[in-house]
Amino acid sequence: MDDRSITSWKRTRVTSALGIEYPIIQGPLGGLSSQRLTAAVSNYGGLGSLGAHSLEPRIIQERIDEIRSLTNKPFAINLWISMEDAAAVSSGAGAFQKALSHISHHLDRVGATAPSYAAYEPLRFEDQVRVLIDAKVPAFSFIYGLPPKEVLDECRRLGIIMMGTATTVDEAKVLADAGVDVVVASGFEAGGHRGSFIRKAEDSLMGTMSLVPQVVDAVNIPVIAAGGIADARGVIAAFALGAEAVQVGTVFLACEASGASDLHRKTLLSGKAAVTGLTRGFTGRLARAIKNELMDELNADHAEILPYPLQRHLIRNLSIAADRARDESLLPMWSGQSAALIRSTEVDAVMDSMLRDIAGPLDELLRWKHH
Ligand SMILES: Cc1cc2nc3c(=O)[nH]c(=O)nc-3n(C[C@H](O)[C@H](O)[C@H](O)COP(=O)(O)O)c2cc1C
Fold first, then answer.
1. Are 361 and 7 in contact (CB under 8 A)?
2. Ligand 1 atom nearest to CA at 250
3. Average pLDDT taken over every residue of the chain
4. pTM above 0.70, yes or no
5. Ligand 1 mean position to 198 CA, how many Å?
6. Ligand 1 and 190: CB distance under 6 A
7. Residue 296 CA, ligand 1 centroid: distance in Å
8. Exposed (0-12), middle (13-18) or buried (19+): which is 285, by Cβ within 10 Å?
9. The Cα angle at residue 297 between residues 333 and 98, in degrees rounded to 5
10. CB of 27 closer than 6 A to ligand 1?
């Protein structure tokens, strides 16, 4: 892309804090992240992120090493502050069998073996974050809460940029008051989990259009808009609302370099992602995915859902087998509401199209704001 066309709009507090060229962040994609995708976005001049919440500390270290072998630009590693619902620790075999009864009739259909009950073995946030700190990653992004003060202090001392995620104005204030560097304001259009941590996720369903300007007004730290942004129009709209960068997930999930399966990526591009819904049925926590048969069944009033992450473990065998059988009706097909806007599955083309023709309108917008 011709860099001469881009002038001051891209110099925001987010790009200067992170040391990146363009205010475009590839949102962490949990277990569907990939080192290749992360590095490709960072190499272009945006910020690539890798979701590490489900990984053992040793694997997180390997992923960081691999990203560093693919790029010398800044990148983010993402963790979940709250790793399990309180009820997960005490949930027993009885609850497991009841929850299993809602999916067992599907197992044969795709040739899946029935999962067996195992007591929950926690992964510890403290052990995961230690790897990030020791590796001195450029940026640490997180959802589902606020890290302990000692972690924030250590990141600040080491110059690790802290990126907290808010789904409501109150959450953004908590993050800003604790000294987090930037806040990702995530509207409910977004794909994946709703990382709410003050009220129930169901009571924290603000859209990007409402959430971003209210967060901008409420905090002094820079705001990154997330949720539903898929092209240049979305970037311009986010900046008009006061955001200083955007975080994009679903569009990058559909990229060839992401960790999503071939079936998942094809479904995102097929038009079926026009209808998404929110469910606890896939993991135990509220998240957005393409509406399908499994979601409808698990959203039914009578369905018994295990606490996070037990429900995720429960449906794992079914998901793997359904993916192998290319049956998109029986597995989580994570997606935000803007999948229909996806035009490319190559990282450079996605970045080009998001940045194309926005310099003029955004510089105009800056002049208007400073008027
Ligand atoms: C499959 C998937 C997994 C995600 N996992 C995480 C995660 O682990 N941590 C996080 O902070 N955000 C996660 N997100 C949210 C994205 O990083 C991003 O903020 C969101 O997708 C933006 O909305 P969009 O999907 O409309 O682009 C995930 C999103 C998707 C689609």
1. no
2. 25
3. 96
4. yes
5. 19
6. yes
7. 22
8. buried
9. 110
10. yes
d(CA 249, CA 229): 8
Ligand 1, atom 12: nearest CA belongs to which residue?
28
Residue with the smallest CA separation from ligand 1 atom 21 is 249
SS3 percent helix, strand, coil of the chain, rounded to 5, is 45, 15, 40
Q: Nearest-CA neighbor of 167 among 147, 191, 209, 197?
A: 197
184: β partners? 165, 224
Domains for the chain: give ranges and CATH numbers. Answer: 3-84+122-260+341-370 (3.20.20.70), 85-118+270-333 (no CATH)
pLDDT of residue 252: 98
Cα dihedral: 333, 337, 343, 348 (round 10): -80
Q: What is the pLDDT of residues 216-271, one digit of tens each?
A: 999 999 999 999 999 999 999 999 999 999 999 999 999 999 999 999 999 999 99
Please give the single-letter amino acid code of residue 39.
A
Atom 8 of ligand 1: nearest residue by CA position: 30
pLDDT at 7: 53
